[in-house]
Amino acid sequence: MKLKHLLLFLLLVAGAAPAFAQQKDTVVNFDQLRAPSSPAFNLLGISPSDIERPKNPTDFAFSIGNASNNLSTVPKSYALEIAPFWVFGGKSSFEQFIDNKNVGNNIKQTFVFSLGSTTANSVKDSSEFRQIGISVKFSILRGKVGKEFTKWDSTVTKVLTQYTESSKKIRDSLRNADTAAINQLRKLRLQSVTSDPDKAAAIAKAIQSMIDAQNTKALALIHKNDSTKNKAYVTQLSQLSNQTSFRRYGFTMDWAAGTVLDFPDSSFNQSYLSKFATWLTFGYEGQNGSNIMFLVRYAANFNRFYKNDINQVVKDIDIGDLDLGLRLYKDFTDKLTLSAEYINRLPFYNDNNYTSNHVSTPSRTDKYDFSLNYKVGKNQNLSFTYGKNFDNTVVKSGNLIAAVNYMIGLGSARGLSH
Amino acid sequence: MPSRTVFTDGSATPITLSVNEVCGQRITTIIDIDGAELPAIQSNFNNLQIGTNASLAGTTVNVTTTAIKVTPAGNSEVDYTLKGSGPDAPDSDDQNFNAAGDPISHLMTYIMF
Questions:
Q1: Phi-psi region for residue A175, left (φ > 0), alpha (ψ -120 to 50) or beta?
Q2: Contact yes or no for A242 and B21 at CB 8 A
Q3: Closest partner residue to B107 among A165, A219, A241, by Cβ?
Q4: Contact A204/B5, CB-based, under 8 Å?
Q5: Long-range CB contacts for residues A278-283, cutoff 8 Å, separation at least 24
Q6: What is the CATH number of domain B3-112?
Q7: CB count in 10 Å sphere of residue A182
Q8: d(CA A404, CA A408)
């Protein structure tokens, strides 16, 4: 009954939309209240399919050197993401990685540096120039791991123990072959400990060499993973290793900042700051599916050349926007999810500069979205999104209305009667 | 893949073992003394008593640790520290994960005399 009322409400809202604004059939860019995972790429407006993620300092130096021709030219198309703490040999235990209480730990472990480059065309003369985006992002508070982690850890415990047991058996089999010889050497050493300490030390060294050789052989056999059982363990463990972006609950706070530099002659000799943005997002995520999130974002564009309202190219027009937002999200059941988002945008600009250059002054504006997703079956969702963009265009999308109409159509079918 | 020769003094002084993965990876460790296995330990641990100077003399202590990749670090480094007989400086074993992120085994052996 409740769902029926909700659907009716959505139908009314959808029907009323054209009455107060122009309709635009595009998809709302939902979830704008989270800082982008790589702010540098976001600011450049690129979605690179191939992002380099160096695993050690050598990889990092090679990647940068290779892309920039040893720092002589600005790369044309490049994307790199790096977690410096981990790549440059930071020390941390697994327990510290899971923990969320120490703010210092949270920051250093989640610190991600991104670097991207692309090409753009000048507003002044359409000439091509290169841009580099640089950003940093980290979590100040990152919440506690929840039931997903407990389940993951329990599976890891089981499979990792089985794999370690299997590795131990490989060691055992090699050790057994050498046991008699090593025991004989141990006896010889004991006999000469007091009478000939040098001989005793040499025998101890010989035993150690035999054991080192055993271990080298054992490690090669273990990592070969040629038994069916071991292959299965490795497959499972590799899969589990890829599932470590644990969902976290409780209070979270993330900070991100990024900037874009323009290189007019595509070399490192001359550059201009063209964009800057910073995000602070904070909120609470409950294990019961409720989520509230706040956003404070400031984005600035420093336009060296700008096309004004009368189509003239004018210089040095700076535009800044402060966004304040709120997002509410709720999973009612495994099937129904509701989400609402509101962002208020406050512009910052130099009034005199705008007026004298014939650039229309921006005004305060806002944006909101309401979204519903209902899972009707495996890989089948009814979705509906309704909202208003900053430019006052109404946005409506999803397949819910069509589906409801379809269901109503089925319900009104009548059979023939005699 | 370290090993160490340890010279015991025949006393009742306990010998303890610590195993710590320092790159944030998840580990499991199995200790065996001349093949006699202790229960598997599912994480880092410190100062686990494995015997005394007297009881461990003449034995071989084998420590088998497996690590799976959890953090963005491309390697796994395990510090093994034996205390109670001789110097207690840690022995480290550092290995890189392959591209597929397969588990890594660290093997440590203490040859007790």
A1: alpha
A2: no
A3: A219
A4: yes
A5: A279/A35, A279/A36, A279/A39, A279/A254, A279/A255, A280/A253, A280/A254, A280/A255, A281/A33, A281/A34, A281/A35, A281/A252, A281/A253, A281/A254, A282/A141, A282/A251, A282/A252, A282/A253, A282/A254, A283/A251, A283/A252, A283/A327
A6: 2.60.60
A7: 17
A8: 6
Show residues of chain A in contact with B109, CB under 8 Å: 211, 215
Angle at A248 between CA A135 and CA A39, to 5 degrees: 15
Q: What is the pLDDT along chain A (418 residues), one digit of tens a residue?
A: 454 455 445 444 444 433 333 333 333 343 455 667 778 888 888 777 778 888 788 888 888 888 887 777 788 888 889 999 998 988 999 999 998 889 999 999 999 999 998 888 887 788 888 899 999 999 999 999 988 899 999 999 999 999 999 999 999 988 888 888 999 999 999 899 888 999 999 999 999 999 999 999 999 999 887 788 888 999 999 999 988 888 899 999 999 999 999 988 777 888 889 999 999 999 999 988 899 999 999 999 888 788 888 888 888 888 899 999 999 988 887 788 899 999 999 999 888 888 888 888 888 999 998 888 887 776 677 888 888 888 777 777 766 555 554 444 444 444 444 4
What residue type is assigned to position A288 of the chain?
N
Verdict on whether the full-model pTM lies above 0.80: no
DSSP A270: -
Of A92, A165, A208, the CB nearest to B24: A92
